[in-house]
Amino acid sequence: MTVTETAPTPGAGLRAAARIVAAPDGRGGTALPVLEGAGPFALRRPRSYGHEARVALVGAMSAPLGGDRLALTADVGAGAALCFTTTAATIALPGRTGAPATYDTRLTVGDGGSLRWLPEPLISARGSDLRQSTRADLAATACLVLREEQVLGRAGETTGRLTTRLTVRRAGRPLLDQELAYGPGAPGGWDGGAVLGGHRAAGQLVVVHPGFEGSPVAPRVLGPLAALAPLAGPGAVVSVVAPDALALRRLLDSALSQLNAVIRAF
């Protein structure tokens, strides 16, 4: 697959895509036979760590702006291992036309494969309108660690409109399917006590591992702003709200450390 950037027509947004393919290299490691990006997607390969290949996304331009259509796919083959990060937060900004932007991420992991998807936060700037979706399709023995963080507004400003959908499927069956909406025009109550309670950062951590099949995690509260719940299969989800991005990351990192300790005990 060759990834190209389509020149926008007057008044339209940017169309850009990127693709990552990870596969066993035959020597006990993971190769990256496809690492392609365009527009705001500049993909770099840091040094591998053991069996795991690493990819870092470096933002090459401001995006997504209103009207942009962005797509990112990652395919992790059977037995391969990949860690994906970004070097900076993604900032959703308003565009010239007032049209919403879309940012679609599609992830697949084969049997025995492992994916750690750990981008920096998404910041919804005032006046922006972003529709974001992330879908992960996992084979029966695949492992996944996926972190999403949303920060509503930059320092001292109100949030833009943000709609996010996160879907995780394993062996063709749903593990998690949730949609969140914040900001102007979102359903009423998004900033109330039942959702954000006045906080301006929210995040989710999804961990899927075959070991949870026989030893599901017990639901519990992780302090006043975070909760852990088992999924309908071998996995768990942590949901967090926080006053800011720093507090959000601390809570998610603490939850991940606890889940990693459980996994190492399998």
UniProtKB/TrEMBL annotation:
Its main location: cytoplasm. One of its GO terms (cellular component) is cytoplasm. It comes from the Bacteria. It is found in: Cytoplasm. Keywords: Chaperone, Cytoplasm, Nickel insertion. Transmembrane segments: none annotated. The keyword Chaperone applies. GO terms for molecular function: nickel cation binding. UreD, UreF and UreG form a complex that acts as a GTP-hydrolysis-dependent molecular chaperone, activating the urease apoprotein by helping to assemble the nickel containing metallocenter of UreC. The UreE protein probably delivers the nickel. HAMAP family: UreD. Belongs to the UreD family. Required for maturation of urease via the functional incorporation of the urease nickel metallocenter. This is Urease accessory protein UreD. The lineage of its organism: Bacteria, Bacillati, Actinomycetota, Actinomycetes, Kitasatosporales.
